[in-house]
Amino acid sequence: MKNPCTYILLLLFLLCTSTNTLKAQRQSVVDSVKNVINQVEGEDKILPLEYLFGIIFRSKPDEAEQVANELQLLYKQYEPKVAEVKHLKLHMALANARRKIDSMYIIGLSGIQEAERIGIDSFAGIFYNDIGLYHWRKGILDSAIIYMNRAMEKNPRTSRFVNNNLGGIYDERGDLVNAIKHYELAYEEAIQLRDTIRQASFANNIGIVFRKLGRQDKANEYFLRALTLRKIINNRPRQLSPMYNLALATNLSIEERQEWVEQGLSLARSLNDPFGIQMFLSAQCVLLNDQQKYQEALDVALPLNRDSSIVGVLIKAHVLEALGDSYIGMKEWTEAEKYIKELGALGKQRNNTAWLQDARKLLLDVYHGNNQPNNYYEIAFPYYKLKDSLDLELARQKLAYLDAELIDAEKEKEIASLNNELQRKETRRRWLMAIAALVAIILSLIIYLRSRQVKTQKLLVEQEQKNAKALATANEQLRSLDQLKSRFFTNISHELRTPVTLIAAPLENGLKKHKGQIEESLETAIQTAYNNANKLGGFVEELLELSRLEAEKIKLEQSPTDIHQYLQQLFFAFESGAAIKNINYQFDNQLSEKTIVQIDKKRISKIVNNLLSNALKFTPNGGIIVLKAALQGNNQLLVSVEDSGRGISQEDLPHVFDRYFQSKNKSLTTEGGAGIGLALAKELASLMGGQLTVESEWGKGSIFNLTIPIEMVEAFNQDASLLIEETSIITSPLIAPKKEGKAAHKILIVEDNHEMQQLLVSLLSDNYDYIIANNGAEAWAMLESNAPELEGLNLILSDVMMPEMDGYTLLEKIKQHKDWCRLPMIMLTARAAEEDKLNALRLGVDDYLTKPFSTEELFSRIENLISKYEEREAFNKLEVQLEFESTPSADIQWLKELESLCLAAIDKRLELTNNYLSIQLAISVRQLQRRIKALTGMTVKQYVQEIRLQKARHLLENRVYNTVAEIAYESGFNTPAYFSRLYEKHFGKSPASYLE
After folding, report:
1. DSSP states along 98-126
2. What CA–CA distances, in Å, run from 746 to 764, 772, 822, 862, 869?
3. Strand pairing of 691-697 and 624-632?
4. pLDDT tens digits for range 279-295
5. Which tens digit of pLDDT belongs to each residue from 756-773?
6. Measured between alpha carbons, how far is 227 from 255 in angstroms, rounded to an integer?
7. What's the DSSP call for residue 670?
8. Burial class for 696, CB neighbours closer than 10 Å (0-12, 13-18, 19+)
9. Is the pTM here over 0.85, yes or no?
10. How remote is the C-alpha of 137 from its chain's centroid?
11. How many angstroms separate the most distant Cα atoms in the chain?
12. Three-state SS for 927?
């Protein structure tokens, strides 16, 4: 360095950055630096220009960019080897200051390549840190951690900054133990380097994490450290943050917190800091509410809420919460609800779970105080579900931190023990003759270690007791949530009983009063509605029965019963259903007639009816079902139901009696079921002192065994009516009769529910011929064999949830068949979820209707599809003699243009919105949506997603990149985790498997 001015400049710069000088002082330093720049030439100009850039790049980025360009010319002339990497470093700082995080990512990648090319790891470490910051701001926390660790490996000198960043990342991730670990590493290194500014900042960060862990006492200790350090270096603006944290410390008295508020307000006003003033005023609102001074709190909070130009998002949330608290305290429920809902909307917008939970908690207070039970239950379930999850996670974090503290204590103990041993050996070597003194030292050491051991054991016992207490509290909270859920289902079930009664009773009365006076078809329709109203009532009764079991309010209602006759009538109730499916239905009754026992007939019928209906549902045509009844000794009744159905997989077998259980086998999830029947049957069996077990092998059927203790009684006069509700099943003809005159269109109806078959037949029989198939397997057998009755078939109307073969599988097979692939198909199902519709549309379904449906809509869609089908078939039969040169259609050319446009936008990292595509293609948004839907069957969003997935597949198969994250970003996805889930769901293979 040729000019001594640069040394003076260095001192000025250090003074400026280390004492946090005010703007006037900082401007004085800037002027001094510029004066030095004007006095030097050539290589000596580099250092003062770098100092100038460091002072102004945040406050004056445009001027700093000019300085960076001037430095680039000097680097190329005097430091050609590092010129490019230093230039990239300057522009990275500018991109960071301007919050251009996408530019940071591109510059960072270039910087790493350049730094590794010239072999300077320290520069590479800086760029790895910046790319880590990019991923952090994007919310890609796993990638941020990876890049931060690489930064520390490449440039250990920046480890305190990187550890501080890692602390923030782990904090945002919810891993508080690792957050504290990295913050403390940064803090210790700042102490070693005497970096007081960073030491204060890191201490404040540690205090915030300790507060989240519930260690407010330790948090206060670190806030006070941060405040003291900032007072030492006279950094007055930065003193506001620890003061604010102390003002919110819940373990301090109201008076102490009020003192911190007043100190903070005084300092903020002396600094003329509007944001700081608002911050401490919001803390004042909290204090006033804690003292139940609600009107005074409102007088402070309402002006703060109106002054949106100054109040930041964090303070806005605190003010809204304070307003809600104040109005709740004053019992002004409408005003409270308004501000609390605004807080909840802010929490959703910022994806802040804490704010959202605070809003839900306050709304529960509002709805409880205002007597709004419906609204209360609507909020209570998500609030307590998330609260339990967060509480358990916090408890786990606290235990993990305490375990880490114990590990550290053990390490300190081990180190102390080793030091003592070394000291003892050294003393022994030097003082071989002092045997008496050596013995005394050894005895002292033994006593000391013994006392330490006793203390350690005592601490461990106390910690185990605390852990047990915390787990007991967590379990109690889970039980409370479960009770809340049970009360909710009980209330809902009771509410449903009234409308079910109002449906069933008029139907029953009408059937009895007008029997024989109305048309047979209308009477059948009313009977069907009545039967299904009773089924719905039965389902409601099952929910209530479960709630009674939970509350232990069920008492057995035993009565003398002829068990032989009773089981026989239960068996005959399902005989007609078995006959329809041509099932070999047997009753192996090993009980003697007039076997009179004391049983609860109502509960026995619930169990047996559930087992028989399940067997009937899952046994294919031509199968076998056997109901067996026998006595085991004189006091045990055995009732078993055996079927030749598909059985239960080993994965599902342990869970079949769990409440609300759904099969883990994805191929079986379309069969429905609420998961209540078997759970109720199991608990009823236990209530009667018996047990319900199952034996099953996949593909070979199942055996359910019910054993209950019984008491034999003498013969008695039993009422002939056992009050068994017979199952009403209406048989449907296989093929409809041909109509006179013009040939009718023919429809194949694929439906396993016989009452739904009858309903569809009654709706369609006046206008169409029809064929009935009881499930997908039966329909496919007819289609594959090209059965004669299928001649003239125009359309297929299929359910989704069916045994043996569901509607999705049938649809997929039909669309792959050369003869039937063009035949239109409508899916008719109770599954209305968007993903189910998309699954059907993706497989090529022509239309999709959800139950309940409008008959007019059904007729309209059938007519439209059949009309289009006949037009296509007529066109295909034309024999065109002329031959034309093969040229791509306008639609194909348009799709190619659209695909190229999407790929180009993905490469440029542009957002592919409807407006962007419509502008580029010079059409309206509605035309764009209609044309893509007509040509591909997909929405614009689905089409763009398909393009991105196909691009990702190409990149993975050709191994263009080495990480899943790089593939995700290059394909236009913002989150690697979401990309991985979507890709595996779409292609059946995870992206990571390509890179192994």
Report:
1. TT-HHHHHHHHHHHHHHHHHHT-HHHHHH
2. 10, 11, 15, 11, 13
3. unpaired
4. 888 888 888 888 888 89
5. 787 788 778 888 888 988
6. 19
7. G
8. buried
9. no
10. 21
11. 129
12. helix
